[in-house]
Every structure is written in C-alpha cells, then in structure tokens.
Design brief:
With about 500 residues, the chain is an alpha/beta fold. It is built from 19 helices and 11 strands. It has helices spanning about 5-40, 45-65, 70-90, 90-100, 105-130, 135-190, 190-195, 200-215, 220-230, 270-285, 300-305, 320-330, 330-335, 355-360, 380, 385-395, 415-425, 470-475, 495-505; strands at about 235-240, 245-250, 255-260, 260-265, 290-295, 315-320, 345-350, 365-370, 395-405, 430-435, 440-450. The strands form 2 sheets. It has a 7-stranded mixed β-sheet with strand order 7-6-5-8-9-11-10, sandwiched between helices. The protein is elongated and about 85 Å long.
Length: about 500
C-alpha cells in the first residue's frame, strides 16, 4: 500500500471505523434488550440474554473470520453494509414481529446473534487490513482501545440522547445510515484494495443509505402502526423521555396511561387505587396531617387525594421524570381528573431520584405516600430495600404514617410479602391491605408507622367515591390465598424482590 493511502487508512479505518463499529453494534444490542424487556417484560432476563448472546456471537464471528482469505477489503465493507441493514432494520422489524408472530423471542435473539456475528467478523478483518502498516502491538492496542471507547459512547448516548430524542425506531435506522456511510467512505480509503469491485460496493452503500433515509421518513408511521397493534384501544398521546415511554389510549370508558408498556392507571377506576393508597395513612397519623410528601405519583392523582384533606398545608411531590409531571399538568384529561392538583399553591414538585432526595432532605413529614412503579428492575428495586425504608422512617414526624403500593398479593404473592417483610426488617410496624381495582385485579398496599397502631376502621370525612367505613375495615382482611408466605428480605446488595416479582408475574403471562 502506498504512503498516500497509508495515512487515511490508519486514521480513518482505525480511529473511525472501529469506533463506529463498536458504537453501532452496542446500540443495536441495547435496542434489542430494551425492546425485549418493553414487549416481553422480565427485563433482567431479557438484557442478560441479549448481552450474553451478543458477546458470544462476536466470538463466533471472530472465529469465522479466519476462513476469509481473499478480497478482504471488499468483504470488510460488505459486512459493514450487512450490519447496517440488519441492525438498522432491527427495531422496526421487531416492533412489527411482536404483533404478527408467536415466536417473537426467537426473532429477537436471531437478530442479536446475526448482529453479533457480523460485528465479530469486522474487527479481525480490519486488523488484518492494517497488517504490515503498523506494528502488531500498535494495531491490537489501538483497535481494542477505540472498540472500548465506542462501546462507552454507545452506553452513554443511548439513554441520554438516542432514546429520548429519537426513539427506538429512529435510533435503529440512524445507526444503519451511519454504518452504511462509513462503508461508503471506506471505498475511498481502500480504493487500491478493491479494484474493479469498488463501484459495486459504492452502489450497494448508496442504496442502503437511501433506503434507511426513506425509512427514517416513515419512522413515526412504523412506530404508530406497531404500537396500535399492541393496544386494544386507539392511541391518543405518546412521548419518550430519558426514563420511560409514555402512551395514552382512549376508549368509551375513558383513557389509560401506560409507562413502558405497563398499565399505570385507567381513568375509569383509578379512584379505587388512589383512595386506597392515600387515605389509610392520612387517618392513621396521630394528628391531622399538615406536611405530606409523595414519592412517585407524578400523574397528580395521589396528590388529588392528599389535597382533599383540609388540614394539609404543604405537599412535596418527588418524581424522577419531569416529562411525567409536565404530562400531569398539561394533558387536559389528566389535569381535569386530578383536579389540577399539580398547580395547587400548596404543592412543590421536585424532579429527582427519591433515594437521594430522602437521604438529603432532613424535614419531618406527617404522612409519606410512596407510589413507585412495580419492582421489575434492579433500578426500581433499590426503592424497596431496607436501606430506603430506613431512610424513609427517619423522615417521619412523631406519630406519622407511611402508605405505599406494594404490587398484587394475589398475582405476585411472594413479591408483596417481600415488600412487607422488608419494611418490617427496617424497623417499621406494618399492616398489609388489599383492594380490587378492575383494571389491575386485586392490588396490595402497606400501611406503616414506627410503633404499633390500631387498624383504621373509619373513612375520612372528605369527598370519596369508593372508600367508606365498611370498605376501610374490609381492606385489611387478607383472604387465605393472599396470606403471608416465607420470603427473604430485599436488600441493596441482594435484590431478591426482582426475582420474586418476575417469577410470580410470569405465571400469568400468556
């Protein structure tokens, strides 16, 4: 190779190609893992399968590369284009496959394996193309360095930029454009190695780029079509934040909010859930609550119930996602349903991690309402640990009470009692209770204080649709099939709750 080609090959192919290969490859696998957990649930298993299979497939690709002996430059660029096509189309195809095939997980893992093999083929071929141009130790160190830097870039940009700004489908297609663009650029870097095949590779690269750009133009339609096939009712609102996908459907009975594909509430019966969540703690406090904090609950519906109590002077609502609290304020049907609670002058909204906030904030609260999502990931499960409950208990004013949602004692019995026993292990006195919410089934809650307390039997004297004295009393009676079962304690270093939750809910999946 001539000196004039040596420099661009070394700088371009080594510093840029490797970086792009690693970045795009990991983004494709993060997309697959996200889609797997989003569509199938069981996020821990899905990400473990996807990342493990991807790394193994890269090994297969690296082993197969030894059988490629001729036309290395052409093969390298063709493999780059294959990564662009397979990876770029992965998200839209997987979205569509979920509603059209009964073997979605097989399709998901097939994409993961194919992308892993192709990426595994690329890096050894690039190292062989550099053979003789750099010292072997420099080739290995630089290629691996930029491979790892690319992986770091993907890991940082995926949750912070790609998903919140572009969404899953656009991210997938954009990575495809980037892969194909690098392959097209490579036809100039490797021109003397390509010979007469140069024109063919360029044509294929241009076709792939054009196809991906056209698909990008239809990305919203592709996403909408896929999501419409996943929900029985029409979709009227969608938004992707750095933390979650918000989606609202509309039916004759009202509207429903889904977060990452999981039902958050249905407007037709949410009052049963939120009245049961809030009011037992409000009446269990030794004196009428004046200062209340709500952890989670960015939709404003638990806040609505808290503000119904005339004694309340100040409420702080702590929700991680500013998109959720903006949605609660600005989506007219939800704002009306919450009685514009998020705009109440007594309310302060804080968008931060509740784990950090409860540690740093030293105020004492008469009532703490905890309305977190179900503990289906390790990130959420930290909010159900002895550490979190110890910090929460330290923020209770004397005689104060905690009310929290704790998943279903019928559908996820072990997970429910793990939550209760973990609260007790942190030093709280806890009483469990349950209520039927048609959209969810039987749902469970926990009422806690720092000392023994009588079971609430009287509903508060505020406007209520579901809760009365009889309902308040009956909620604290657990039927035999929801009674306690032996469980381990959920700790920060041993999040058994996630395993209980995934095991229990898997039994009810179709």
């Amino acid at each position: 190779m001539t000196d004039s080609v040596h420099a661009p090959l070394r700088v371009g192919a080594l510093y840029i190609n490797v970086f792009v290969v690693a970045t795009c490859g990991l983004v494709y696998e993060l997309l697959a893992g996200t889609l797997g957990s989003y569509l199938l649930g069981d996020s821990v298993t899905q990400f473990s399968l996807v990342i493990g299979l991807y790394l193994s497939a890269m090994g297969v690709g690296a082993w197969l590369s030894r059988h490629l002996e001729t036309n290395l430059a052409k093969r390298f660029l063709d493999i780059e284009l294959a990564v662009a096509v397979v990876g770029g189309l992965s998200a839209p195809v997987l979205f569509m496959a979920f509603s059209t095939t009964g073997n979605f997980q097989f399709v998901l893992l097939a994409f993961v394996f194919a992308i892993g093999v192709l990426v595994g083929l690329e890096i050894p071929l690039l190292m062989r193309l550099l053979e003789g141009q750099l010292a072997f130790k420099d080739v290995v160190s630089r290629v691996l360095t930029f491979d790892y830097i690319g992986a770091l870039a993907a890991a940082l940009m995926f949750p912070l930029v790609f998903v919140p700004q572009l969404g899953l489908v656009r991210t997938s297609l954009l990575m495809g454009v980037l892969n194909a663009g690098i392959a097209l650029w490579g036809t100039w870097l490797l021109a003397d190695r390509l010979g007469r095949s140069k024109l063919g590779v360029r044509i294929r690269a241009v076709v792939v780029i054009a196809g991906m750009i056209v698909a990008l133009g239809f990305a919203d339609r592709l996403t909408a079509r896929a999501e419409h096939s996943m929900y029985p009712d029409p979709i009227v609102y969608t938004e992707t934040s750095p933390y979650q996908r918000l989606l609202v459907t509309q039916s004759r009975a009202g509207f429903s909010l889904f977060l990452n594909g999981n039902l958050q509430f249905a407007s037709a019966d949410e009052y049963r859930y939120h009245e049961a969540l809030v009011h037992p703690a409000m009446v269990a406090a030794d004196s009428p609550p004046r200062r209340v904090v709500i952890l989670g609950g960015g939709d404003g519906l638990a806040l609505r119930e808290v503000l119904a109590h005339p004694s309340v002077e100040r409420v702080t609502l702590v929700d991680l996602d500013p998109a959720m609290t903006r949605f609660g304020k600005n989506f007219p049907p939800l704002a009306a349903l919450s009685r514009n609670s998020l705009d109440d002058r007594r309310v302060t909204v804080v968008n931060t991690d509740a784990m950090l906030w409860i540690q740093e904030n030293t105020e004492l609260w008469d009532v703490i309402i905890i309305d977190f999502p179900d503990p289906n990931t390790f990130g959420i499960a930290k909010l159900y640990t002895t550490l979190f409950y110890s910090r929460t208990m330290a923020r209770l004013a004397p005689g104060g009470a905690i009310g929290m949602q704790a998943t279903s004692p019928l559908l996820s019995r072990a997970a429910y009692w793990c939550v209760v026993e973990t609260m007790r292990a942190a030093g709280l006195t806890v009483q469990g209770y349950q209520v039927s919410v048609p959209s969810f089934g039987v749902w469970g809650f926990a009422l806690a204080k720092t000392a023994a307390f009588p079971t609430p039997t009287r509903a508060p004297n505020v406007a209520l649709r579901f809760l009365n004295d009889a309902a308040m009393t009956s909620m604290f009676h657990m039927p035999a099939d929801m009674g306690p079962v032996p469980v381990d304690i959920n700790r920060l270093d041993d999040p058994v709750l996630v395993r209980y939750y995934e095991r229990d809910w898997k039994r009810w999946q179709r």
